[in-house]
Design goal:
Elements: H1 2-17, H2 23-34, H3 39-50, H4 57-65, E1 69-72, E2 77-81, E3 87-88, E4 102-104, H5 109-124, H6 129-142, H7 148-157, H8 161-177, H9 183-194, H10 199-205, H11 214-264, H12 271-292, H13 300-322, H14 331-353, E5 369-372, E6 375-378, H15 379-401, H16 403-413, H17 415-420, H18 425-447, H19 462-472, H20 477-498, H21 500-517, H22 528-531
Helix pairs in contact: 1-3, 1-7, 2-3, 3-5, 4-5, 5-6, 6-8, 7-8, 8-9, 9-11, 10-11, 11-15, 11-18, 11-19, 11-20, 12-13, 12-14, 12-18, 13-18, 15-16, 15-18, 16-18, 19-20, 20-21
């Protein structure tokens, strides 16, 4: 190892001091060391190659790793064994005409480790800045002291600020655990790593050796405390994001139920099955596109949204006209009837599509993720939040700006007065039920991207949907929005402390106690029939 370190230092000095020297001479000297077939010389040659910056170096190291680096002849020369046993010049990769008898360069475990180190060092001097940065991060995670000379040499030539920062961080990560370092150097390394503020930095700082000076240990302890406090804040922010994501799902599932329950007073236990039908509509659309129009796959969700709205809306109108309209004013009967309808719809889907989960793919624009600080945001969840808000404001505009919306609000506030003014309340009921069902179908399109598409999909959201509607205020859209987001965030903030099951139970108890104080929810609708 001493020979390797000396070779690395020598090569680093050579490269750093004479950047204009021809690299062929350095590589030729390294190739000559392979011909001695001694492990120390091979290791030293690998170190020199790693810092040469030559385009041929990577191929030579790779050939040695594969057992294809051979030598022979007088004077001895190094070749790379190609296909069919042909010998290639390692610098030009051209076949050699006068090929002498050869034998492979020997490799042992120590040389294999040197090969891995050389590959990492070659990445540090790669022309691609992204590869250099990744190599620096990998060196920092490994904390291998043998990589220091290569890292110092690469750092001396680096001009990209981001790559240089990654290399400095990798160097500091190694120095923290290296013996023989002065306290001042180690403290500077601790501060640099501590500024990174992530889990990797925590692991590195906890590796400060016991032999370190007391001031170094104190600096590391302060850095660890600061990182843990910072990560706790980011963890809470991540939970809030998860809560908003869950809240958008609850909003999509509950918003149709809010207008149905608010206008008609119907406890629709089949609302979850409307969500399920929307998800299966997405599955059918994608199957047709996969088999007939594969180029349209990225637009499959955009095609499925209006189709799911129309299909589930039509099913909703049929249910209202054939069953619900005979049961107005009898809440228990509507609950039992719609529960029976939900069982019928589930069994129908099982008969048509089978009981197993169905695969619904994600378009390319909903794939991937990105980070803001230490906050990880997936594109799919972000688009679902955007979609939920678009649906909310579109429904709000429908209720505020259209005739059907005006009639729905009139029926909500006072059904008898609206009927006396010439509003066809039966027609409004059918359209309201169809609109609520159609919105549930669009929710199913979104949920198909984050949940299993199965006959039981709707059952996972029906109880939470009723909870959101009652908590926010029956029939009030703004109450549904605030209720969905509040319950979603509260649920995710409780989970780390109470667990998923106990957290949901605690949230249910809190909502029950809240309803005892405010029976009409957060935002109670006011009208003459209510005030009476």
């Amino acid at each position: 190892m001493l020979c390797a370190a000396l070779a690395l230092l020598f090569a680093a000095a050579l490269v750093g001091t004479f950047p204009g020297r021809a690299e062929a001479q350095d590589i030729s000297g390294a190739l000559g060391q392979f011909t001695s077939n001694k492990y120390d010389d091979t290791e030293a040659a690998l170190g020199a190659l790693a810092l040469s910056g030559s385009p041929a170096a990577a191929g030579i190291v790779s050939a040695l790793a594969d057992g294809r680096l051979v030598f022979g002849g007088l004077p001895p020369r190094v070749f790379i064994e190609g296909e069919g046993g042909a010998l290639l010049d390692p610098l030009t990769m051209q076949p050699v005409a006068d090929a002498p008898p050869v034998k492979p360069v020997r490799v042992n475990n120590r040389v294999r480790r040197a090969i891995e180190a050389a590959n990492g060092a070659l990445s540090l001097v790669s022309p691609d800045a992204g590869k250099r940065r990744e190599a620096a991060l990998a060196v920092g995670r490994s904390r291998d002291e043998a990589a220091l000379p290569a890292l110092d040499a690469a750092l001396a030539k680096e001009s990209d600020p981001q790559v240089k920062s990654a290399m400095n961080l990798a160097r500091a990560s190694i120095l923290i655990g290296k013996e023989g370092i002065s306290p001042a150097e180690r403290i500077a390394a601790v501060e640099l790593v501590g500024a990174e503020g992530n889990q990797d930095a925590l692991a590195i700082l906890r590796g400060v050796p016991d032999s370190a000076a007391p001031e170094v240990k104190q600096a590391a302890a302060q850095a660890i405390e600061g990182i843990e406090r910072n990560l706790a804040m980011w963890g809470m922010a991540q939970n809030v994001w998860y809560g908003l994501s869950l809240g958008s799902v609850l909003l999509l599932a509950a918003i149709g139920l809010a207008i149905t329950f608010g206008v008609m007073g119907v406890i629709n236990m089949a609302h979850g099955e409307m969500v399920m039908l929307g998800a299966y509509t997405t599955f059918v659309v994608q199957e047709v596109i996969r088999t007939s129009y594969p180029g349209l796959f990225d637009a499959s969700l955009l095609i499925a949204i209006p189709l799911a709205f129309l299909f589930t809306g039509l099913i909703g109108v049929i249910i209202e006209r054939t069953v619900i309209r005979f049961l107005y004013g009898r809440a228990l009967e509507t609950l039992l009837a719609t529960w029976g309808i939900s069982l019928i719809l589930q069994q129908a889907i099982r008969t048509i599509f089978g009981p197993t989960n169905r695969e619904v793919g994600a378009p390319s624009w909903m794939s991937g993720s990105f980070e803001i600080g230490h906050l990880s945001i997936t594109s799919g969840r972000l688009w679902i939040i955007v979609f939920a808000l678009l649906v909310f404001f579109a429904l709000l505009a429908t209720l505020r700006l259209t005739r059907i919306g005006l009639e729905m609000r009139a029926v909500t506030q006072n059904r008898r007065m609206a009927a006396s003014m010439g509003i066809r309340t039966n027609w409004v009921d059918a359209m309201t039920f169809g609109l609520g069902s159609g919105i549930a179908g669009m929710a199913g399109v979104a949920l198909s991207q984050i949940d299993n598409v199965s006959p039981n999909l709707g059952q996972s959201y029906i109880i939470d949907s009723f909870l959101v509607v009652v908590f926010g205020g029956v029939g009030n859209l703004w109450g549904t929005l605030v209720g969905a987001m509040t319950l979603g965030v509260a649920n995710k903030l409780l989970e780390p402390y109470a667990g998923a099951v106990l957290g949901k139970i605690a949230l249910l108890v809190i909502v029950i106690l809240f309803i005892q104080k405010r029976p009409r929810g957060l935002f109670a609708l006011k009208g003459r029939s209510i005030e009476a």
